[in-house]
Design brief:
The chain is mainly alpha-helical. It is built from six helices and no strands.
Length: about 170
């Protein structure tokens, strides 16, 4: 029987694999497009996933560390946190390549650091708001559910942009 940590790690990797399939055939020119009647775009969804994975896996479990600014800058944090609004492409917006790189860099770091998390560390409580369980393991488990929620939004934006469904 896999450990709860390994289950959380596997779910997170699986959710990210699915998200990546949704992004594979999207031209960069579509990332900042908000289809009529749609309140979001691909760029915001991807950036938000990178921010959220960092916050739910690393910050919630081990806290912020000085070199985290290299993963997710404070500006990135403010721009893509919960409640932020998507923007249109502009000179000050990250390119799709930069967003993909951030998404991959954060994910790789999360999977690497998760390998060192202990059961006692994961059993420690987290402050509200939390989803599922009021402990650090709950934060890890919620991260994959959160990613799948946003993968669904990416899938819908894809359809609104004329793309066929992936699954």
């Amino acid at each position: 029987m896999p450990s709860p940590l390994n289950i959380a790690r596997s779910q997170l990797a699986s959710a990210r694999d699915y998200t990546r399939t949704l992004l594979t055939d999207l031209d960069d020119s579509l990332w900042y497009t908000q289809p009529p009647g749609c309140p979001t775009n691909i760029a915001w969804q991807v950036a938000h996933l990178a921010f959220a994975e960092y916050a739910l896996v690393l910050v919630r479990v081990r806290g912020k560390e000085p070199d985290d600014e290299l993963l997710v800058s404070n500006g990135f944090w403010r721009r893509y946190k919960k409640g932020s609004e998507p923007s249109l492409a502009g000179a000050d917006e990250p390119t799709p390549a930069e967003l993909r790189a951030t998404l991959d860099r954060v994910h790789d770091r999360c999977l690497t650091e998760m390998a060192s998390f202990t059961d006692s560390q994961l059993g420690a409580p987290v402050p509200e708001p939390y989803s599922g369980y009021p402990n650090k393991l709950g934060s890890l488990l919620f991260c994959s559910a959160h990613e799948m929620l946003h993968a669904g939004q990416i899938g819908l934006v894809r359809r609104m942009l004329g793309k066929k469904p992936v699954r």
